[in-house]
Amino acid sequence: MNPSIKPRNILQLSNDEKQAFIESFDLVISDMDGVLWNEINIIKNAANGLNLLKSQGKSVVYVTNNSVRSLKDFEILFKKSDIQAESKDIVNPLRSIIEYLKMIDFKEKIYCISNEPFKASLREAGFDVINDPSKILKESFKTLKEYIIDDENPGAVIVDEDFNISGPKIMRAHQYLTKNSQCLYLTGASDKKLTVGPGINILGPGYFMDLLETSAKKRPIALGKPSRDLSDIVMKKFKIKNRDRVLMIGDMLEQDIGFGKNSGFQTLLVLTGGTKLKELEDVKNNHLIPDFIADGMEDFVEFFRDFNKSKI
Question: What is the pLDDT of residues 124-144, one digit of tens each?
Answer without folding.
Answer: 999 999 999 888 888 999 999
